[in-house]
Amino acid sequence: MTFWHFSSTEELRGDWLFPTETRFGPGRIAELGSALATLGIRRPLIVTDRGLTATPIPARIVALAATTSEPLLWAGADQNPTGEQVMAGTAAFHAHRADGVIALGGGSGLDAGKTVALMAGLGGDLWRFAYPRSLEVQAERSKVPIVAIPTTAGTGAEVEASGIITDPSKPVKAGIVNLSMLPRLVIADPELTLDLPRHLTAWTGMDALSHNLEALLVRQFHPMADAIGAAGVKVCHDWLPRAVDDGHDIVARSYMMAAAIMGATSFVKGLGAMHALSHAIGALIGAQHGLTNAVLMPAVLRFNRPAIEQPIVRLASFLGLASGFEAYYDAVTALASRVGIPDRLGDIGVARQDFERLAHMALPDFNASCNPRPLDLPSLVSILEAAS
Ligand SMILES: [Fe+2]
What we know:
- The structure is a single chain.
- The chain folds into two domains: 14-192, 3-Layer(aba) Sandwich (Rossmann fold); 197-386, Up-down Bundle (Dehydroquinate synthase-like, alpha domain).
- The protein is built from twelve helices and nine strands.
- It has helices spanning 32-39, 57-65, 83-95, 107-122, 198-217, 223-245, 250-266, 273-285, 289-318, 325-338, 355-362, 377-386, and strands spanning 14-16, 22-24, 44-49, 72-77, 100-105, 146-150, 162-167, 172-177, 185-188.
- The longest helix is centred in the last third of the chain and has 30 residues, at 289-318.
- The chain starts with 13 loop residues before the first strand and ends with a helix.
- Fe (ii) ion is lined by residues 207, 210-211, 275, 289, 293.
């Protein structure tokens, strides 16, 4: 537990203004229609990924939105959405004469939706918003409002201003960054995650853990983000096993949805080698993002050890573990194994012959520059070897 323990759906609610306006709590998706009316959105484009259409959620969102508006559902994003898909979604926005975007889903639907809103508002070449070119065009701001509705507890993309979009021609998973991608409103309803399968609960939950943990370990003065990251790590350790064991445990689902938001709030500091390598692996073989982070986590912690001893010792103490790096390392590997994460990169389809190429792809990733221990090509290959 963190500081307070809440155990009823009445208590697990909040109207948060940090980092963006968020209506949090079981059942709050019922407020979607009135929220759209308040925001003046009359013709929303609902952007989601193909995978979610196998569930009743998109139809439910359409029905709720239709109480006050004329929505159109566009479910053309893949697990790793591409630039071409974003432009197809943008064309759907204009064809519908839409005036806002509802970004719906896990990371794929949310990132695609936020990027469609960016391109619908600004047009032109998507890739000018890819980091680091994005730094030169931050004065451009889209006015298309975004309502974000997460259906997993992992990415936290609902509360931050970027999207990961794949350019298959390179291949690269580019970080599309623009402050106007920050949603105007988030409706975070943990009930939407109740039917998420066990393995996706584990993988997305480990992504939330990797955000809180990697952000905490970025060496940068940001006490607010550090406090949130440390508490987020604790929430993941306390609640992820329960959410995986019993998907219908609304208390565990609520805490994990909060942990996902905490992770994305704390990663304003940046992330590290887990994410740099995970983006490269995702771009090359399409592996699931949270699962890849989870498999890389022990090797990255080991590699970074000389630079993170102090914060890890303090984290172990905050978690009530025995003192020292090994105590936290043991706790995190036990958690991964408890929720069914495989040990080796080979188990998720990463081939040893691709290590050099993956290192070359990971090094320019923004998150590589934030890693607490400096990275170069040999060190990235050494991490991949340690994880294989
Ligand atoms: Fe992530």
